[in-house]
Structures are given as structure tokens and as C-alpha cells.
Amino acid sequence: MATSWFVIVGLLLILIGLTDTWRRELPVSASALYLLAGYLLGPSVLGFLQIDLQRDAVLLERLTEAAVLVSIFAVGLRLRVPLSDRLWRVPLVMATVTMLLTMALIFGAGVALGLAVGPALLAAAALSPTDPVLASDVQVEHEHDRDRLRFSLTAEAGLNDGTAGPFVMLALGIMGTHALGPWGALWWQRDLLWPTSAGLLLGWVMGFSFSRLVVWLRREREQALGMESFLTLGLIALTYGLALLLEVYGFLAVFAAGLAMRQFERVDNAAAATVVDPVTDLGPEAAAHPNRASAYMARVVMDFTLDLEKLAELVVMVVIGALLTAAAFTPQSLGIAAATCFVARPLAVLATTQGMALTTSQRRLAAWFGIRGVGSMYYLALALTHGLSGPAWRPVADAVLVTVALSVLMHGTSATPVMRLYRRARRSPLPSPPPSHR
């Protein structure tokens, strides 16, 4: 097994590296190619990768957990818009109200297709968050990108992987593998209110304190220069570890840490911008420069996390592809997948963003690009390691796997050409009004 992984991952990395420029011209995402490669290498075709969802649930949980952590940290680093800016209103609604409505609609579809209440809620909770790992083509293009559609999809993906957690635990409680307390009192306290609010606070304190300490050491002592990769991994691991110790949501904490690092950089460089452009003039000598230290650190850390994100995307999508079998494509799983992609997400977005600061085309694109992927697989693996078993687990697993596959193929294939048309339309001047005939 280990030998196969070394050979397969090595060949894929070299192949993707050599053909990346050519691949970008294709109307298909890298994640779709990785998914196909995993399926061909898995037990359904060649049999090189032998992965079992139940037997390897702990390994799958760790792989997907690491992928989501790196990705949501990178998402936080991309968001340089001040928290007081009205641009945040849409993604906050989409990560909460929209996600809850999406979950309710998927739950209804699951029950209508024959799932019991607990499994239907588990499938809905796992499939409700959009994916920060696979959504790179529809996310902000750089830290100064203020496009409402791209910003909303990016921030939503960073937030809702954490906000889905309480409802996964609620579903496990209904199925008898997690304590909810009388009238759900324990769930409200232990799984919803405390871990959500405390997770965001912990991440913000960690990210802001870390950034301030490193920049101070570089400016005042010319210490802590370089080793940004170690510092990045250390911050992610420490923040997540403390979140687990405090029993708060680590995904939200790590997202908030990345966001706090970027917000510190923005505030720190506000005055320096009148002297030198701290964001674009970032050679190696900028690491300890009084006006550029924080911008240099944020840029290097973001570049490193984006590379890690691509590696995580490759590994996890190959695994998901290897887990796919023809038996998973049942009428029930296909129905839930179709309901998620074609009904629940579009209706929820269109209903909850009515009257908000989005154009009609932006609302339609936001309704379409609800990519499901690594986050959904993480919650499925988490449920399996928390005791999901018996006749209930297979229909839930099939629904998640088929929905992820459908979403990756559809959204991944459409993201590049559709977003190119969107960018072209946004750059085009508005047509002149018709002449008056009065």
C-alpha cells in the first residue's frame, strides 16, 4: 500500500507539474482529473489503491482534516477587506442562513427518498458546506480583489465548514452515538454556542498575536527571519491543537487565525503605504524592512499555503476517486446528489440573497457554484469514527460520495469557462443608452 502511494503520488505530481500550463486551457479542473485518476487506480478498475471507507476511516479523517485546515487558513489570508466593510454581509448570510436552508432542503430530499431522520440529517449536514479546497477558480484572485461574487464565495467556503459541525453532531446524537442532553440542552451549549464563538475568538487571538510577535522580532531585533513554512505550519497546528483542548471548533479557529494575520498586515501597512508600496515591492530584503515586514510575511505564508493546498487537493481527490464504485450510484444517492446540486443550493441562495448587493448574474452564479468536496468527506469520516455503523452508514456514504463526484465534475468543468466569461463581462463597458426620439 505504501509503495503504491509513493509511486502514484510521485507520478501524478510530476505529470501535473509538466502539463499544468496546457491543462489550464482545458475546460476541466485539476480536481476532476485527480478524481478520475483515483477511480482508475482504485479497486473498480486497476486495483492499485485498496481503500475501504470503514476500515480506513481514521486515516481518511486525518487526510481530509489536514486538507481543510490548510485550505481554510489560506482562505483567511486571501480576505484583506476590513471586517467593518459591507462586503462581508453577503458571505455571512450565505455561511449561516443559506447553509441552514440548504441543509433543510437536502434533509427533506433525503427523507422523501427513504432515509430515516438521523441519516437524512447527517447527509444534509455533511453536504451543506461549500468546499474551500476545490473552489480556487471561483475565489478571489488576489488580496485586493473586491469583486462581490468571488469574495462572497471565498469567505463563505472558509466559514461554513466550521458552522456545519454542530449539525453533524446533532445528527449523530439523533442516531444515538453522541449525547445531546435533555431537550438538546447539552448540544446547544457544548456543540453550538461555546465551540463556535470561542473557536473564532481563539483563532483571532492566535493569528493576531503571532503576526505581531514575528513582525516585532523582525523589525526590532532582526530575528525570526525566514522559515515561513515552519511558522505557518506551527501556527496552524498550535491553533488547532488548542481548539481541540478547549473543545471548540478548530476549523473556525484556523480560519480566524489566517484572517487575523491578513487583517494585521492590512492595518500595519496602512501608514506605510504613503512611503512605499508594501504589497508589491517584496523582495527578500523586505523581511525586516520597517514598512514591508508584515506584508512580506503575509505574502510568503500565503504562497506556501497555496502550494500545500494543491498537494492536499491531489491526495484527497485521488482517495475519493478510489472510494467510488458503481454500487454507490443508487437511485437514492443520485437523487440526493441531484437535489443538492440542482435544487437545494440554487433555491437557498436565490431566496436568502434577495435584495442584497449582488447583481442578477452574480446571484445566479453564486447559486450554481456550491462546490461540495473535501469538507463533506471529512464529516463523513468523522461520523464513521464516532460510531456510525449498521445499515444507516452505507446510504449516507453513498450519498456523500456521489454528490462530491457530481459536484466536482459539473462545477469543476464549468468553473474555468464560466468565470472567464464573467471576468470579461465585468471588464466590458456598459452599453450606451438608446437615443431619445422625443
TrEMBL record:
UniProt superkingdom: Bacteria
Subcellular location as annotated: Cell membrane
Organism from which the protein derives: Ideonella lacteola
Segments forming domain Cation/H+ exchanger transmembrane: 13-420
Topology in membrane: Multi-pass membrane protein
InterPro entries, A to Z: Cation/H_exchanger_TM, Na+/solute_symporter_sf
Keywords for the protein's UniProt record, in alphabetical order: Antiport, Cell membrane, Ion transport, Membrane, Transmembrane, Transmembrane helix, Transport
Pfam families noted in UniProt: Na_H_Exchanger (PF00999)
Predominant cellular place of this UniProt entry's protein: membrane
Protein name per the record: Cation:proton antiporter
Residue stretches spanning the membrane: 6-22, 34-51, 63-81, 93-126, 167-188, 200-218, 230-256, 311-329, 365-388, 400-422
Gene3D superfamilies linked to this entry: 1.20.1530.20
